[in-house]
Specification:
This protein has 9 helices and 13 strands. With about 350 residues, the chain is an alpha/beta fold.
C-alpha cells in the first residue's frame, strides 16, 4: 500500500486528530465542507518530522492513520522528512494528487501554513497546528491540563518532596507539559521542589537517560518526561535506580512494572482517524480544534494494580483534580513559572 516518493523520503511516520473535533468541541471552528474525488481510490499521506519507532506518540499517530486507511480504503504513503525538506515534500505529495495530507508536530506547522493555500483542493490535517485556513484542520491538545493531574499524583507520592521533568526541547509547546505538572504538584505540596531539564532532541534516548540519572542522583524520586522517543531513556534510568517515572502521550505504564506511576495520555490516534473519516465521507471541516480533560482526550492514565499500586487517596485526588479542571473550577496556566 505504501509507495515511496523519490528523493524526498527517509522512511515512515505519523499524525493526529479526534472525534469531538467536528461536533462543537473546536475553538474558532470555522468549517468548510468539501468532497473527496469520485471514481478513484482515495490517497492519504502522513508526513512526520519525528521518526517512527518511538513506542510513543509518533507510533500512536501512525496507528490511527493506518486504521483509517484500512477502514476507508485509502492508498497510503508515510514520509519521514528532514529539516529543509518540509515544504518540498508536502508540495510533491500535493502534486501527486493526494486527497489528504497529515502533518505531524510543530516542526511542520509553518510549512503546512505556507503550502496548504497553494493547493486548495487538498485537505491538510495539522497536528499541533494553530492554522486557520479553509482547507486545514488544526488539532491542539491541552497538555497542561492532563499534566496538572500528573503533577497532583507526583506531589502526593513523592517522599523526597523533590520531582523532575525532562522536555524534548525548551519551547512553548513542551513547556505546557511542565506548566501543568508543576501547578498540579504545588496544589498538593506548595513546598515541593521541581527541576526541569531538556534533551534538545526528540530522538536521543541516551542523553535523556543521562539527564534522568542526574535528576535522580540530585534527589528527585519521580521524573516525568515529554520528549517522544528520547523519553525512553528515562525508563532505563528508573529501572537502574529503582526510582519512579511518569510516562507521556501514550500508556507506558507497563514499561517498568512497579515504577511507572502513571502516564499522561493524549488521543492523537483518534484525532487522525476522525479527520480522515471526515475526508472519506465528503464532510471535511476546517478550523482549529482544542481538546482537553473535559472530553477524555487528554488525561492521566493510572496503572493497573499489578503494574503499580496507586494508593486510594491518591486515586481519589487525581479523579477530583481531573473533574475540577474539566468543569473549569481549576484553570491551568499553560506557561511555566520559569517563563513568567
Amino acid at each position: 500500500m505504501k509507495k515511496y516518493i523519490s528523493k524526498l523520503v527517509a522512511a515512515v511516520l505519523a499524525v493526529a486528530m479526534v472525534t469531538v473535533l467536528f461536533t462543537g468541541c473546536g475553538s474558532g471552528n470555522k468549517t468548510n465542507t468539501t468532497s473527496a474525488k469520485e471514481g478513484k481510490k482515495l490517497k492519504a499521506a502522513l508526513v512526520t518530522a519525528q521518526r517512527l519507532g518511538d513506542k510513543g506518540v509518533t507510533d500512536l499517530c501512525n496507528e490511527g492513520f493506518m486504521k483509517a486507511a484500512k477502514e476507508f480504503g485509502y492508498e497510503t504513503q508515510v514520509v519521514e522528512v528532514q529539516k529543509g525538506e518540509y515544504e518540498e515534500s508536502m508540495r510533491a505529495l500535493a502534486e501527486e494528487d493526494y486527497d489528504v495530507i497529515v502533518t505531524l508536530w510543530m516542526e511542520l506547522v509553518d510549512a503546512t501554513s505556507k503550502v496548504a493555500p497553494q493547493y486548495p483542493n487538498v485537505k491538510f490535517i495539522s497536528v499541533l497546528g494553530n492554522i486557520k485556513q479553509s482547507n486545514v484542520m488544526g488539532i491542539l491538545g491541552k497538555e497542561h491540563e492532563g499534566s496538572y493531574v500528573a503533577g497532583v499524583e507526583a506531589g502526593m507520592i513523592s517522599k523526597a518532596g523533590h520531582i523532575g521533568f525532562i522536555g524534548g526541547q525548551d519551547n512553548p509547546e513542551i513547556n505546557r507539559f511542565l506548566a501543568g505538572y508543576e501547578q498540579g504538584a504545588k496544589s498538593v505540596n506548595p513546598n515541593i521542589k521541581i527541576d526541569a531539564v531538556y534533551v534538545g532532541s526528540f530522538e536521543d534516548p541516551t542523553k535523556c537517560k543521562d539527564l534522568a540519572l542526574m535528576l535522580y542522583s540530585q534527589g528527585a524520586d519521580i521524573v516525568y518526561t515529554a520528549a517522544a522517543k528520547s523519553g525512553l531513556g528515562m525508563f532505563d534510568a528508573a529501572k537502574e535506580t529503582g526510582k519512579y517515572a511518569i510516562g507521556c502521550d501514550v500508556n507506558q505504564n507497563d514499561l517498568v512494572p512497579g515504577q511507572v506511576i502513571g502516564s499522561m495520555t493524549i488521543a492523537y490516534d483518534k484525532w487522525i482517524y476522525e479527520g480522515m473519516k471526515q475526508v472519506a465521507k465528503n464532510a471535511f471541516k476546517a478550523g482549529v480544534y482544542e481538546f482537553g480533560v473535559d472530553g477524555d482526550y487528554v488525561g492521566l492514565t493510572l496503572p493497573t494494580d499489578d503494574q503499580f499500586k496507586v494508593p486510594d487517596d491518591v486515586k481519589k485526588a487525581c479523579e477530583e483534580a481531573a473533574k475540577k479542571v474539566a468543569n473549569g473550577e481549576v484553570k491551568v496556566d499553560p506557561i511555566p513559572s520559569k517563563d513568567k
